[in-house]
Amino acid sequence: MGRVLESRVVLGAVFVAYAALTLWVALHHEPWLDEADSWLLMRDADAPAILRYASYGGTPLLFHALIWPFARAGFPYVAQQLVALACAWGAVWLVLHARAFPAPVRLLFPFSFFPSYTYSVLARPYALFMLLLFAMAALWRRREERPLRLAVVIALLANVNVHGLLVAAIAGLLLLAERRSEVRRYARATAVMVAGGLLAVAQVWPRAGGQVVERSADLATFRYALAEAFFPDMRLPLFWPAVFVFVLIAFAVSRRAVPLAFLLLSAAAMAGLFLFVWMGGPRHAGLLFLLAIGALWIADAYGGLRLRNIVMTALGLSLLWATVTAYDYWTEEVRFPFSGGRWMAGYIREHGLETAQIGAGMALLNTPLVDLPRTRFWYPERRDWGTYATWGFLDRSMTDEKAIRITQGHFRGQRWYLLSNREVPGALQGEFRLLARSPLQWGHVDERYWLYEPVAP
Questions:
Q1: pLDDT tens digits, 95-150
Q2: Which structural domain, as residue segments, surrounds residue 373?
Q3: Contact call for residues 255 and 299 (beta carbons, < 8 A)
Q4: Considering only CA atoms, which of 68, 53, 87, 98 is closest in space to residue 294?
Q5: Do residues 348 and 312 both lie within one domain?
Q6: pTM for the whole thing?
Q7: 326 and 345 belong to one structural domain
Q8: Same domain, 147 and 43
């Protein structure tokens, strides 16, 4: 039975099914704010603005560089979705051919929640993180034969996001510790890793006016992250079963120090970000799941696992649960719009408002702009027209009423429209007439849009 499941025909059929599923769901998915923002930045910003964005947003620009040629060439937003899908498909291909895992785990993995939805359908840098993490794990067995190839992958991983920078730093330090008696032999590989890390740090080094997350540590955050990582659910992720699986994996990789250190140090780094900086929901919780997969893979390069059959059974049960959860998300994506942005873009087009003067109340209120290449919004925070986020102008004291008053002042005596992702405050409703409100049956409440026309005094 095992040979049948591991045959090229079965692995190929599973890969094709996975690629078809994620493509189908992705084509029904509408971008959320940060997905749209990446595309609009690459489409509309100049080089200095792009570099400032990396620092203000705290994200290196490797994924953005992949979508830049398509955005500049005038491709539709689907190009970004295809880039993310290609990364996810590459990661799944590596897992399907990884001898570190038994066939049932390899065949379940593609359809579990994170690879089949969060890191594939949602077009964010996390698909690239998954691909490079798995490429690093796959190359670990040949780290002495191909040190430069592994070093390049680690350097690239550092430039995906801050999470990738931390994981790459830990992996690089563990390699250096292993090679401490052969420093000269691996000098070039070490230089590549260090250069990659410095490049990432240079991009995300904080600037005045960048994002500031005011957060106090809350252990419930880590409880949520661990539960969501191994037993994700739309309603009730399971914490204690997740603890059991994580501890079991940690014990399994403890035969050698490197894979155990990789798992524990990387998980601790993620926990630090979650507790003191930003949790970010399931997309960040899933990084713990990916790190566990990576640690198991690296451990296989050192000769195997403790309690291998028990660990793989527990991991298989986790993947089964995550696949059921993924099914809910696939069906919701296909049945309902994830965002009201595309609907509102259609309304603006159909009513000839693409070049109208439209004021927006939030610096990231830009999802409709993905489908409106000729349209710009006027943002009261920055007192200027634009499409992508400019974190340096972020004003945390800006209320809806204040934003509207500033916009009214800017357009005084002119014909203009107001677009908001909330209803106009009650005190101002008499000054505006509602033209359109996008439906939203599923997805983020921030993604519902109201379009108003000022009422002449």
A1: 999 999 999 999 999 999 999 999 999 999 999 999 999 999 999 999 999 999 99
A2: 341-454
A3: yes
A4: 98
A5: no
A6: 0.94
A7: no
A8: yes
